[in-house]
Amino acid sequence: FAYAVHTNVGNTCVGAKVNGKIVPLKYRLKSGDTIEIVTSAHGVPNKDWLKIVKTSRAKAKIRAVIKQQERDKALEIGKELLEKSLKPYGLSQSKIEKSGDFERLCKGHLELRTPDEMFIALGYGRLFPEKIIEFLVPKDAQEKKLEQAKGADETFLKKVLAAAKRKTESKNAILVADQDDILIRF
Predict the structure, then answer these.
(1) Whole-angstrom distance, CA of residue 179 vs CA of residue 177
(2) Residue 135 needs a FRET pair 20 to 30 A away by CA distance; which of 25, 38, 76, 119 works?
(3) Residue 114, SS3 per DSSP
(4) DSSP codes of every residue in 154-176
(5) What residues does 36 pair with on adjacent strands?
């Protein structure tokens, strides 16, 4: 019913009153009921609503909101992922955005319209930061970083093996469902 009134009423709906009584959103309306929709500025639809609503229009509006939420989250994740990937090379997203390299990369090599589409593709996992780094970072800097990473991996592996050798059985150990190496906090 909230979506029949207005899309924004449906999107911000958090509850309903029928004939003056609070009812769950899945309440089945009867002819002659007096309906009051309770809204909140922070209310947003969720996927469970798709099981409740009856009209195709309401389902389409809910799907659109959910898709936009997922897209915004993927954009945020993509930006964070790229920022972390650029950091070892001494680059930052803001510098690259100002230089216009993202636009050239998107239109020339990735066949995307905007940098936001690139970030969204990164967030969804359809594009990897390495592909962007190939374009933005000179080859010699990439090779140098790769050699440093190999050395760090070997050092890390040695530390892990040494820690495993030092590991001794504790007299206070607890066995959890025949599992070991489980973090337990009392």
Answers:
(1) 5
(2) 76
(3) coil
(4) HHHHHHHHHHHHH----TT---B
(5) 17
